[in-house]
Design brief:
alpha/beta; 10-stranded mixed beta sheet; globular
Length: 147
């Protein structure tokens, strides 16, 4: 089971720290994958509702690349990643679609849409989703899914 920290959260939502590069690194160093929200304006920035934090994508990719799920928050970020040369870059863009495919062909499922075989269940605790067929889980409470 792939365990994905939502915005760096491990044991509950922390809006003051979410998507901050140091917070993301803490979750990665705790052996979780991390879903991060990324924007592109004139540079890449992290943040949920708007671009907040500058970061160095090269550093993240060198040390953590295969464990980051890049949620593009605007089309410019999606376009940036489409033109970025990295074999293991895993990014996606969606709104409220039932599912979307990531650039690495993972099925990313909107909360409340489970069960979907071999998908990533997002925030399954919101709807008491059946995750028995899932390949992974993305949650603010990902520590609860560690066995």
């Amino acid at each position: 089971m792939i365990l994905i920290s939502h915005r760096g959260n491990i044991n509950g939502s922390n809006p003051l720290k979410e998507n901050h590069p140091d917070y993301i690194k803490e979750a990665l160093n705790a052996d979780y994958d991390v879903e991060v929200d990324v924007w592109y304006t004139d540079k890449l920035m992290l943040g949920h509702d708007n671009p907040q934090y500058e970061f160095d994508i090269h550093t993240f990719l060198v040390y953590y690349g295969k464990n980051i799920w890049w949620h593009c928050k605007n089309i410019k970020a999606l376009n940036y990643f489409q033109n970025y040369s990295c074999a293991y870059l895993n990014y996606f863009w969606h709104e409220e679609d039932t599912i979307t495919l990531t650039s690495q062909n993972y099925i990313w499922a909107y909360p409340g849409k489970q069960p979907i075989k071999d998908s990533i269940a997002v925030m399954p605790e919101f709807n008491n989703d059946d995750t028995s067929q899932c390949l992974g889980i993305c949650s603010d409470y990902i520590v609860n899914y560690k066995k």
